[in-house]
Amino acid sequence: MELEVYWTQFAEDKLADIFEYYKYRAGIRVAKKITNEIVDESLKLEKNPFIGQIEELLSERVQNYRYLVHNNYKIIYWVDEVNKIIFVSHVFDTRQNPIKISKF
Questions:
Q1: Cα separations (Å) of 82 from 3, 4, 35, 57, 95?
Q2: Minimal CA–CA distance to 101: which of 79, 82, 74, 78?
Q3: How much is the average pLDDT of 27-36?
Q4: Chain-centre distance of CA 68, in angstroms?
């Protein structure tokens, strides 16, 4: 079962924020490496969309949110099985207060 991974605008904005942070803290090469690794991690979902754990902090939402962890980041997504699309909804820095995850 191969699905298409689609990044929402919110998730893309978070990825851009991560890139900007590391660009000024560690340089462009490091920023590209980190953001590319996050995107590459999300591509694993194409062949196995349910490998991520259920995100308990978003359990009250209509969608059944799951997440993958890559380094310090949670890649939060949900699966639309009818349309065969995986929506990456958020990239959350796990060093933050976990309650902030529900504010997207």
A1: 10, 12, 29, 25, 34
A2: 74
A3: 97
A4: 7
Whether the predicted model's global pTM rises above the 0.90 cut = yes
Give the tens place of pLDDT for each residue, 58-83: 999 999 999 999 999 999 999 999 99
Cβ proximity of 5 and 45 under 8 Å: yes
Q: What is the DSSP string of 8-37?
A: -HHHHHHHHHHHHHHHHHT-HHHHHHHHHH
The two structure tokens encoding residue 42: 């999300």
- Four-point Cα dihedral 32, 30, 70, 81, nearest 10: 0
Residue 91 and residue 75 in contact, taking contact as beta carbons nearer than 8 Å: yes
- Beta-sheet pairing, 85-93 with 4-7: parallel
pLDDT of residue 48: 94
Q: What is the C-alpha to C-alpha distance for residues 101 and 104, in angstroms, rounded to an integer?
A: 7
